[in-house]
Write a structure and sequence with these properties.
Number of domains: 1
Order of helices and strands: HHHHHHHHHHHHHHHHHH
Strand content: under 5%
Radius of gyration: 21 Å
Mean pLDDT: 89
Distance between the termini: 36 Å
Largest sheet: none
Length: 430
């Protein structure tokens, strides 16, 4: 029975013989996701600075976030299809070049239109990160390891969110906010060199042992035929994933783009002081991402069905978000940080499992497209929620109604997913 527990001691020797090249790929995906989130989050961190310099209203900032999410919605569905056609290696490289260029162009923006334009271009490029990354996980991992691998690379989002408040205030104080965009963008280009040098499909990789290749390909072969998009749109399984993204992705967008503002307004922090609370929040989020992927994978290794393991883990996550209801009413900064940390960790654990559902239910050739559809749904949800946040803050000046929505949507999303896919059965798309 020891071989049923690949994370246990009895399995360490076989794991060493199989090889671990696939985990190098996860490391690259982790690094790219961290860079993606540094570039994405910087405007949220600089919101008080930019608002003071340009005189933006709350609804103006919400509109700029909206343009990013609009592009993300369009780009996500396009990149999902592109990645299925040209593969993860080239698809990721194209996305990275677009978003890094757009990130550096923030340095020349002087108007609301200018910021909206560069945020739109950034959204186009950044939309390729998860379709390409999840396609790579699908190519390099068997089903039983995908949630854990996804949890690890998804944790890069939190590392990016941790790094941003550590480096951006210092860069901004030293070089101005324009210089901060240029420096962070230029340094990140090193990742592109490493990606193009290392990444190949498993059968094209010279670093991969025969044992590890056999392990990666241990799942039954998928049908070779391309799956038409209209057929995917007609499947309940596609809509289960898409509605889950539509309802819960906006909460993470809210944390990225408005959490520094919440700390400034509710607890009197500023560019020099909100770094430590943000670091704590996203360190805990990182642990949540890894834990969520590990938990469902561990339950599967213990003999649970994929359906039971994924949904049990997601239920735990949904319940863990609900205390966010009280974050607005807490006077202690660090109690508020603890509540928010639990919610963000739960979201990331939820996300690690939600992102794995397409590979659980669809053949490999359809995974990128399904993820693209879901990502678009999530971005549309984010657009709607951003406009809602702008209006609430402009009219009421409080985050309470925003947190009420954030704390309840996960349970609604899980109920919808279960109704549409009660067994997470393989979708009939061929």
């Amino acid at each position: 029975m020891a071989t049923d527990y690949p994370n246990g001691g009895a399995a360490r020797a076989p794991e060493a013989r199989i090889g671990r090249v696939r985990w190098v790929i996860v490391g690259l995906l982790f690094a790219a996701t961290a860079i993606n989130y540094v570039d994405r989050q910087m405007i949220g961190l600089l919101k008080p600075t930019l608002q003071a310099e340009f005189g933006w209203k709350e609804t103006t900032y919400a509109d700029i976030v909206f343009y990013f999410q609009l592009a993300y919605a369009i780009g996500y569905i396009v990149f999902g299809n592109v990645v299925d056609r040209i593969g993860a290696r080239l698809g990721y490289a194209v996305a990275f070049v677009i978003w890094t260029g757009a990130h550096m162009l923030h340095a020349v923006a002087h108007s609301v239109f200018g910021f909206g334009a560069v945020r739109f271009l950034l959204g186009v490029g950044e939309s390729g990160n998860f379709p390409a990354g999840l396609k790579a996980v699908t190519e390099w991992f068997p089903k039983k390891e995908r949630a854990f691998a996804t949890g690890i690379f998804n944790a890069g989002a939190n590392v990016g969110a941790i790094v941003t408040p550590l480096i951006v205030p210092a860069l901004t104080l030293a070089y101005g906010w324009r210089g901060a965009f240029v420096v962070t963008g230029a340094v990140s280009l090193l990742w592109l060199v490493a990606w193009l040098a290392v990444y190949r499909r498993p059968r094209e990789s010279k670093r991969l042992s025969a044992g590890e290749l056999a392990y990666i390909e241990s799942d039954p072969a998928d049908p070779a035929a391309k799956v038409p998009w209209l057929r995917l749109l007609g499947r309940r399984e596609t809509w289960a994933f898409a509605i889950g993204k539509f309802l819960t992705d906006p909460v993470w967008w809210m944390f990225l783009f408005w959490l520094p503002d919440f700390l400034v307004k509710r607890h009197g922090l500023d560019l020099k002081t909100f770094g430590p609370p943000l670091v704590v929040i996203y360190v805990v989020s990182d642990l949540g991402s890894i834990f969520g992927g590990w938990m469902s994978s561990r339950l599967i290794h213990r003999g649970w069905t994929i359906n039971r393991a994924r949904k049990t883990t997601m239920l735990v996550c949904a319940l863990a978000v609900t205390p966010i209801f009280f974050a607005q009413y807490v006077d202690s900064l660090w109690v508020a940080v603890a509540i928010i940390s639990l919610a963000t960790a739960a979201h990331q654990a939820w996300s690690a499992n939600l992102y794995t559902l397409p590979s659980d239910m669809f053949p490999r050739k359809a995974v990128g497209s399904v993820i693209g559809i879901g990502g678009t749904a999530g971005a549309v949800g984010g657009m709607i929620f951003s406009l809602y946040i702008g209006q609430v803050l402009e009219r009421l000046g409080t985050y309470s109604l925003i947190f009420y929505v954030a704390g309840s949507v996960y349970l609604v999303a899980l109920a919808v997913i279960h109704l549409l896919t009660p067994r997470l059965a393989q979708a009939e798309v061929c």
